[in-house]
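Box 3.1 A note on notation
Throughout this textbook, protein chains are presented in two layers. The first layer is the amino acid sequence; the second is a token string describing backbone geometry. Keep the layers aligned when reading.
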Amino acid sequence: MHTENLSRWVHDHVFDTGNDAAERSTRVVMWITAITMVVEIAAGWWFNSMALLADGWHMSSHAVAIGLSAVAYGTARRYAQDPRFAFGTWKIEILSGFASAIFLLGVAVMMLVGSVERILSPQPIQYKEAIVVAILGLLVNVVCALILGKAHHHGHGHQQDHAHSQQASHHGHHHDLNLKSAYIHVIADAATSVLAIAALFGGWFFGWSWLDPFMGVIGAVLVAIWAKGLISDTGKVLLDREMDHPVVEEIREVVETEQEVNHTKITDLHVWRVGKQVYSCAMTVVTHDHMLTPEVVRERLSVHEEIVHSTIEIHYCRNDMHSGQRADDAHAGQHPSQAAGQHPTSQPPYP
């Protein structure tokens, strides 16, 4: 075997280029949240304010979750070239998003329990102090949301620059789920601050003390809904539930033919996501067309730039001149000469 010729079969398995803007923004937001948390806890201890202490410890939960997102970006980047990750390290970010969503769901449960306890056993509220704390928290969260929102638009625009085909542009509209998890934590905190401000003003001016815990229940439900959506999105990727995606049907459309002479059918197809906008696929093809090769199939698949890795196995029907099987494991877009020297296997042909 001539080793100098093996380079054609050696490929880079880094399918997702990461999101540098999102990583930087997440770290900035993490530090802003952490500093605000420390200031509020210190001020609460100094001024003996339970409102400041409570909001400070509440901020700590979001600081931990956002910090988890930042760590995931760094870990995915650090191990991007590690050959132990057969399809890259992008799912480290997805795993972080899933864990963050579970954490957010726990926050919603604690909010709900605390609010119900306050409804059943009302406590006196220091309205002026609590309003100041809520407004401070809202301002911090608005700044953080703007930072993360800018990172999202920057990352999305950068990814779209690499989508040159209509299909890639259409299927490439996937959010950065790790960034989305950090963003939801910030938005959830901002939303609860808005609800708290409304409730506190209602209690202060109209004496509606019940409004504060009632808004807490509404906030808990809202946060739980967001957490559920994020769990669904990240869980779908982690479990490779992609067979209902439009790209699956489009793969069939470009590979299969209904012609009587060269009838071609995909009998087994697997599609899974290996990056924010890219997919890998493995398929078994049964055909009457003895001229069909893995390279021909890849040429058909090349109209979908989001398919970056393909494994293709071809079986020829019994009544064809060249019955047998050809298989090839490689990336989409390989040169046709790579199939040279292949021979049919002893596996029996299909009738």
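Confidence is low (pLDDT under 50) at residues 159-173, 321-351. The longest strand covers residues 264-273.
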